[in-house]
Amino acid sequence: MPVWTARVSRPFLAGLGLLAAAQAEARPFTDAAGRVVEVPERPARILAAGPPASVLLYTLAPDRMVGWIRGPTPEEKPYLAPGTRDLPATGRLTGRGGSANVEAVLGLKPDLIVDVGSTGPTYVSLADRVQAQTGIPYVLLDGHFDRTAESYRRLGALIGAQGPAADLASAAEAIVAEVTRAVATVPDERRPRVYYARGPKGLETGLGGSINVELLDVLGARNVAAGAGPGGLANVSPEQVLAWNPDVIITQDSGFRSGIAADPLWSGLKAVREGRVYQAPALPFGWFDAPPGANRLIGIRWLASLLYPDLFPRGLDAATRDFYRRFYHVDLDAAQVDELLSDATPGPKP
User: What is the pLDDT of residue 98?
Assistant: First the structure.
């Protein structure tokens, strides 16, 4: 549930006056929720409302970011453009653990707020409320994986960066098209049953239709947790995981992955016995999830090569370098590529 705390002071009211003047030269923009928002002609200081928005904005216009949702860790910084590594932490307006408030937002002096994710009524209500309280235009973009290219084009039109946005949108479409063409040839009996193990205990997962497991649908894999019904993230019992007995387990937690083979709760599962436990790379953003944003574009290529190795015999080194250069604005050296891919292989067998 999004959290928004309103605290109003005289500096806040003064800030509203300045923002109202700045909006005098605004233009209408229709966002992904159908809201018509008056936005600056070319916004220069943009605040991301949550992690997926932060990724989308960074990949397209890192020079216009006012900060990160949370400050990058020392391990993440080398995988980010130098000029963005020390931007301040802004907190988040939306999603789990919303921490920003009116005065904190005004203090950053953004002229636009962008959120990427759900465009449902809860998020529309939050956007309208924040916009009314701050005077800052707040735009919603669709965060579903199959809308990634469209969201790049919308963001490009929103901030006056249509050319770079078109390039990233085309690159996104090419990545997905390469994978989906190959996977379309896989018969049903070869499509693996997959469990996404979130957290240090591996007992949180994405249910059917969850944005956190969208890559499984794109890859034709079967999410075992979909049988528990539709929804978002949910906690499940060890007994339920044992009953599902997945062919493949995906995690982003290194501690969970390293201990799974010796844990009697997990060691009898087919995925563990056959060494098909995969840890998604996570620098500077998760390749499978965390957040469920444009960062998953490299993850789809990685996971496809693990689920269907015969269809993707080439290594990931070149694809990783190209993606990081194009989307993350960094040129990786061999050591960095090795670090990213070193744990992105099957987990240990018991």
Answer: 63
- Phi, then psi, of 312 in degrees rounded to 5: -135, 70
CA distance 159 to 140: 13
Query: What is the per-residue burial (b if ≥16 Cβ within 10 Å, else e) of 191-205?
Result: bbbbbbbbeeebbeb
Q: Tokens standing for 145? A: 């994986």
Residue with tokens 């209408």: 28
Asked whether the bond before 291 is cis by omega within 30 degrees of 0, the reply is: yes
The whole-angstrom separation of Cα 344 and Cα 299 is 10
Q: Tell me if 277 sits within 8 A of 343, measured CB to CB.
A: no
Contact 123, 92 (CB under 8 A): no
Answer for the pair 271, 195: CB distance below 8 angstroms, yes or no: yes
> Nearest 10 degrees: CA dihedral of 318, 322, 328, 329?
120
Question: Cα(287)–Cα(282) distance, rounded to whole angstroms?
Answer: 6
Q: Output the pLDDT for position 25.
A: 77
Q: At what angle do helices 317-328 and 162-183 cross, to 10 degrees?
A: 150
Q: Give kind and range of the element (H or E) at residue 265.
A: none
Over the chain (350 residues), what is each successive 10-residue block's mean pLDDT? 45 45 75 98 96 98 97 98 96 77 88 96 95 96 98 98 98 97 95 96 96 96 95 95 97 92 92 95 96 97 95 92 98 96 72
pTM for this model (two decimals)? 0.91
Residues 6+ apart with CB under 8 A from 52: 116, 117, 143, 291, 292, 293, 294
Cβ-count burial 269-299 (b if 16+ within 10 Å, e if not): bebbeeebbbbbbbbbbbbbbbbbbbbbbbb
Structure tokens at 25: 């030269």
Other C-beta atoms closer than 10 Å to the C-beta of 141 total: 23
Give phi and psi for 65, each to the nearest 5. -75, 140
How far from each other are the two terminal CA atoms of the chain, in whole angstroms?
A: 40
